[in-house]
Amino acid sequence: MEILLGIATETWNLLREMAPYLLLGFAVAGLLHVLIPADWIERHLSGSRFGNLVKAALFGVPLPLCSCGVIPVAAHLQKSGASRGSVVSFLVSTPTTGVDSILATYSLLGPLFALFRPIAAFVSGITAGGLTALWGERESRAGVPRGEMCTTCGTESHEGQPWLQKLHAGARYAFYDLVADVGRWILIGVVAGGLIAFLVPSAWIETYLGRAWLAYPLMLLIATPMYVCATGSIPIAAALVMKGMTPGAGLIFLIAGPATNTATLAFVGGKLGRRTLILYLTTIVALAFGFGLLFDGLWTLLGRDPGLLTGGMRMLPEPVKTLSAVVLLGLIVVGLWPKKSSVEEVKGMGLQLKVPDMTCGHCKAHIQSALLALQGVKEVRVDLKSKLVEVEGPVPRDLVVQAIRQAGYSVEEA
Question: What is the pTM (predicted TM-score) of this model?
Answer without folding.
Answer: 0.59
